[in-house]
């Protein structure tokens, strides 16, 4: 089952910490969003494998945008 | 109260491999900064004459005396880098810290007899007053190792007079004694004038056989009457008198043990004086820890070294405060107070060495949708909002009611700003928190984990809470300033930039000034600067933090002025619901 990892807040993609195919565990840091002058990590909501990465460093994202799809 | 305290809720998680990997550079920076701070401390310790030279003269150094006096592994130095008036000697010339003597906590302070035979130096009285305040706040004895040659005369204008000058500690000693807090003094060497009062003002005076205390020493007695200048004939007279008095300085043990009886005991050996202090420490009122322990002491469930990977050196990087706290408290257990309210602040009861302590800390990162509830902007940890301020007011008040000491952890950029925030009463609630702290009358300590900024640095149990904050620690990541340097540059130069622009002049010089100011802020907010100027009482390596928390809790519970029976506490019941 696919799980969407969404942006909790609007900002710039500071860093993508995973690659397609990586296995991740719940609470692993996946992406860093720069917002409100801080580097905010986005965590994996569940164990899984990175199926798709929809953002790259420097992208501007809005709240609830899908960043990564896990399966 | 076993159901409440014996086993609290577990918190914290094992460190993720990804986190360890991502933190590698940060860990390196933290270690590097801790190394630099350690080097600075070592340099202060080596100030003045070499140890060998003092030993050749038949004396121990202040450091050797402390090592002999205090229980093994109990020395928790404070003010190691404090030198607010930039003395060339690199020190205020007193050495102090919290330590156990015969199993009882005391504040220990001694003159560094390697530097000008322990003279008064600029900044020293402020250092001493921090120490007398600490003894008062924790209600534990003050132990002096007196060895004070008097004032560094060429710089007397910097410290002799004034409200908080070199004589103020003598009044503070009297205040401590009036409050029932003993001041024990081991007295060595020659202590004239100010040194004499350093010797006479404590409660119990234990002297080495070679010690003397006097209103005036050889230098003063032999040149007492000014005659409007000097000539060779006068110098000859002075030499003769000085030789005479040097042979028999005023106020020796012959006078102050045999005749006045000021000295309670005189000891042949220097170590004998310290043994005497140990005997008196055995005689002071002190509860055994078990009296207040609500559970068996336990180490945290996770290694303390994890904190190096959890606390980012980069001030912009977000982290999980709860994970840091889980590495510091007994069993990594807690009872969190109002977890669903005021998410930017952690408030909860924890155990340190089996004793209850209230903890308050800034959480970091995005606070979730619709928070703060009064604004249409996202909330971010490190800032204080209405709910967090209300929660802290409640928590502090309950800690006061339940007689539970409080440990604060700051990493704050300030209180929320703007008209929405003003309507949400954050200004009033911040001052309300100050009022709440002021009325608790329980000991508090503060760790500035990273940022201490704006008024939030004051209201979060900062050192400005003079009567409550026992001491403040910093870390390798500490940064204290009224605001971020770039924010300060904008505040200072924004109008100037408009003027220059309107006048058609180039903006480069303004940008240059702004960069200079931002850089100055950066330099003047770093850990060593903060310690040098007394914004913190000590910079502590992260791995030593728990030891200081244990020292604080142990000292706070050694002889508290008031007690709340654990079965009368209300906070645990409120948490349980």
Describe this structure in words.
The complex is a heterodimer of chains A (71) and B (577). Chain A has strands at 3-6, 11-16, 23-24, 29-35, 38-43, 48-53, 60-61, 66-70. Chain A has 71 residues and is mostly beta strands. Chain A has a single domain (3-70), classed as RNA polymerase II/Efflux pump adaptor protein, barrel-sandwich hybrid domain (OB fold (Dihydrolipoamide Acetyltransferase, E2P), Beta Barrel). Chain A has a four-stranded antiparallel sheet, with no helix packed on it. Chain A has a four-stranded antiparallel sheet with strand order 5-4-2-7, with no helix packed on it. Chain A starts with a strand and ends with a strand. In chain B, strand 4 (104-111), helix 6 and strand 5 form a beta-alpha-beta unit. The two termini of chain B are 15 Å apart. The chains are: A mainly beta (71), B alpha/beta (577). The A-B interface holds A 8-10, 17, 25, 27-29, 34-41, 63 and B 13, 16, 18-19, 22, 314, 316-318, 364-366, 368-369, 378, 380, 382.
Summary of the model, kept short:
Chain A has strands at 3-6, 11-16, 23-24, 29-35, 38-43, 48-53, 60-61, 66-70. Chain A is mostly beta strands. Chain A has no helices and eight strands.
Uncertain spans of chain A, ≥5 residues at pLDDT below 50? none
What's the main sheet of chain A like?
4 strands, antiparallel
Give the class-level CATH name of chain A: Mainly Beta
The CATH topology of chain A comes to OB fold (Dihydrolipoamide Acetyltransferase, E2P)
- Mean pLDDT of chain A equals 93
Number of strands of chain A: 8
Taken from the alpha-carbon principal axes, the silhouette of chain B is globular
Instruction: Look at the helices and sheets of chain A and give the structural class.
Output: mainly beta
CA(first)-CA(last) distance of chain B:
15 Å
| CATH architecture term of chain A | Beta Barrel
Which helices and strands, and how do they pair?
The complex is a heterodimer of chains A (71) and B (577).
Chain A: E1 3-6, E2 11-16, E3 23-24, E4 29-35, E5 38-43, E6 48-53, E7 60-61, E8 66-70
Antiparallel strand pairs in A: 1-8, 2-4, 2-7, 3-6, 4-5, 6-8
Chain B: H1 2-5, E1 9-10, H2 17-22, H3 24-45, H4 51-56, H5 62-69, E2 76-78, E3 94-101, E4 104-111, H6 124-138, E5 142-146, H7 168-178, E6 183-187, E7 190-192, H8 194-200, E8 204-208, E9 212-214, H9 218-221, H10 232-247, H11 253-259, E10 265-267, H12 270-282, H13 307-310, H14 321-326, E11 333-336, E12 345-352, E13 355-362, E14 383-384, H15 386-402, E15 406-412, E16 414-415, H16 419-423, H17 426-440, E17 444-453, H18 456-459, E18 469-474, E19 479-481, H19 485-502, H20 508-523, H21 527-532, E20 538-539, H22 545-556, H23 571-576
Parallel strand pairs in B: 4-5, 5-6, 6-8, 7-9, 8-10, 13-15, 14-16, 15-17, 17-18, 17-19, 18-20
Antiparallel strand pairs in B: 1-11, 2-3, 3-4, 11-12, 12-13
Helix pairs in contact in B: 6-7, 15-17, 19-20
